[in-house]
Fold this sequence. Notes:
The chain is of the alpha/beta class.
Amino acid sequence: MAKSATKYLFVTGGVTSSLGKGIIAASLGKLLSARGYSVTIQKLDPYINIDPGTMNPYEHGECFVTDDGAETDLDLGHYERFLDNRTSQANNVTTGRVYQTVINKERNGDYLGKTVQIIPHITDEIKRRIKLLGETEKYDFVITEIGGTVGDIESLPYIEAVRQLKWELESDAIFIHLTLVPYLSAAKELKTKPTQHSVKMLLESGIQPDILVCRTEHHLNSDIRRKISRFCNVEIESVIESIDASSIYDVPLMMEKEGLDKVVLKKLEITNNTKVELGEWSSFLEKLRNPKRNIKIGLVGKYVELQDAYKSISESILHAGTLQDCKVEVKWIHAEEINKDNVSEKLTGLKGVLVAPGFGDRGMEGKIETIKFVRENNIPFFGICLGMQSAVIEFAKNVLGYTDANSTEMNKDTSTPVIDLMEEQKNIIQKGGTMRLGSYSCSLSKASNAINSYGETEINERHRHRFEFNNKYLSEFEKKGMIATGKNKKTNLVEIVEIPKHPWFVGVQFHPEYKSTVSTPHPLFVGFIKACISK
Ligand code: GLN
């Protein structure tokens, strides 16, 4: 394919939040990469936190971690799952980071003599970060999703920055605006006014959208499309319907049907007659829609009311289930609701249990009771990060007989700290971005379910934690049947524990969920679901 300048696609949203900008950006990215282009997607977040790492999942949903250790927005998870390529720190920009850079430069004297202002200093920094991906990685397309809703005070510098960029990039940039076309059931009518208003608001900022993606519960007929086209100055073929889908993975095909990728290429004056290659994606959807079997598993965690908090985990379960023609229903169980007396009732009918990552001691008792139950009853168990640490604590309490065993995160004064703060963490006071973050290697050393799943002995997985298995106790654990089957060679940190006598009992210190994609479901999730199916 002839190599021309990187094209920039700016995705904004209007009318309301939660219209699924991230999924539209990921779907468009998928369609362009299915035509053979290299694509990356970036998210600009208008909050003042440096990153979402210090936010509560109730505020922000899951915090997605990249290979290079950035704590980012959960939309980056969608980008990776759809495109099957890796994102990095550069793919998530926050207002906090932008201001931090500008203020540091000011202190360094880089602007000596000048008044530092939103325009041009903040907007220049935003533009630099947008262009960085195109310049350093030479992507064909950089899709930049601007968080928030047009009209928000917080988003103004971003909107102004992309307006300026369009001026500089001329025909190498276009605007895609996502809006809502609500249905008034009393009038039995779809209403275009909110879309008109939100486009007007964009126009006030000097931006004319090239394409409108209209989220709707009902099909847009040609009258509605014509009306939107006329009032919003976009061609009728650039009015794209985005109707509610039963799965987010349907959206790329829906967008292809609506011709989103074609209009994008046309607007950028690119002739491309390559066929969109979505065969693998379609067979995934085919399997997703026609499962041959059903199973139910449990997910025990602290934020079960808010499933966005475990987004990558639930998507990984779906990928692994679909690969095995299995619909996996997940029963979300609040750890605080589980106790010794009700654990068997809470877990009845479940073919396997996953204990989720987390921080702090709320719900620990329920997690321990859950793990004791699945360990003793040979129910497949998958513990992730705090889930793995809980399995270690449970084993120490109930098998090794250390009734006081704990993590020093939960009890500083425990007499048996089987999980302890990592050495490198001991002098850290600052909270933001200071955990053990990002990709580390792990060697799988013994015949184990881990090796069976991965099919190789050297792996890399992403981490986000401060506490670790305390190696002082390892030989005692191994004598009694809990084995370290994965270790970091350099630091000797235990990354995986297993109970070989149990059909499938695997605890991992890392987060496998961050690396599962539609085309490459994660081996450990595949192994876990396989064990659940055969249970
Ligand atoms: N709170 C634990 C730690 O910091 C586990 C973290 C997690 O589950 N992501 O080590």
